[in-house]
Design brief:
The chain has one domain: Acetylglutamate kinase-like (Carbamate kinase). The protein is 47% helix and 19% strand. It is built from 13 helices and twelve strands.
Length: 274
Amino acid sequence: MAKFDIELVGKIGSIALIDREYQDINYNIIARLSRELRPGYIWITSGATEIGRLDFLKRNGFELDGSDEDNKTDYSAQGQSILMQTYRQFIDSRYSVRQILVEHQHFNDETKRQHLYEMLMRCPEQKAIPIINYNDAVCSEENRKTEILKIKEKQGRAIECIDNDETASQIACLVKCKTLLILSTLDGIYNDISDPGSLIEKVSGKDVYELLDNVNELQNHCYGSNRKGSHGAKAKLEYIKEPLKNGTTVIIANSKYSIKDIMEGKVKSTVFGL
């Protein structure tokens, strides 16, 4: 039986964190999820950029008119502090909350990778909950692409951390977690996004090779070739392959459900594993 160092790595997307009706943080969801977080859990959160945009708009009555990259940088810097403050407000006061902002270098450079690993592994015994996000505020997209290209030329491949689905999968691999939980506004992966009855509830196999073959097959015909139209279905399936190779169970589920109910199989989701 595989030995797992961390119980759960969880990730929630920005769409799930925003209440579109009120143009604000969905406090019901973030409060409920935060109360379930405990030592032994690592949480990856998106949302800083959109939260920052909404906060800036609320305070100023208009949106920034700079370049897309400048706006993303400024909004994410403003939103990250609000995001962390909100998690701290609802997480059990017995536990510490630690903000960790990562970039692709933390996964491509062995020294930085090891430093990140050791820091995360100290958290459970120190009763601390790591809250991780990609560091959009200081990451220039042009510089990132140049650095990624150099890494590929040198090493043959590079971890790009295009979004937090990839970041969560890399964290799951780094700490060898038992379960990777990815939350969105859908119940899981569908054969047809327009048909609620086409939810795929279990993807398995007699061994890891058959499991990965089944994930590949699902990628070929599931709806969701791009992020905008599919909530990133095909991209999610690509990113979860590495954790699955390590024996991690992966669950893609709806953020409207509690972590406990999802983990206990009391609600519908898509579960990948042997």
